[in-house]
Structures are given as C-alpha cells and as structure tokens.
Amino acid sequence: MTSTEFEELLTPAEVARLFRVGPKTVAAWARTGRLTSVKTLGGHRRYRESEVRRLLGYR
Description:
By secondary structure, the chain is α+β, with helices and mostly antiparallel strands.
C-alpha cells in the first residue's frame, strides 16, 4: 500500500471554506484541472488535503 491510499480527503465544502469560495467554484476548478478530485464509491467528489495545502501555500 502507498501513503496516498491513507491520505486525508476533504469535502467540497471544506475546500471551499479554506479558499473562501463557494462549492460550485471548487467543482469548476476540478472540471478545469486546477484541482484533482477523487470520486467515492457513492459518486461524491473528494479532494486530497496535501494538494489543497500546497495550493494554499502550506508546506
């Protein structure tokens, strides 16, 4: 198993709150490739915390 299999995933609402934008903006970023999403078994989008932190400028 790789470390990415255990990586923390964030909901669209959590990502939106961190960037201070709406969830629809987060979905648009995923559609355009600005942000990578992972689909759950139920078809919901989730976002890797490490990628979100990198985009926010955290290390």
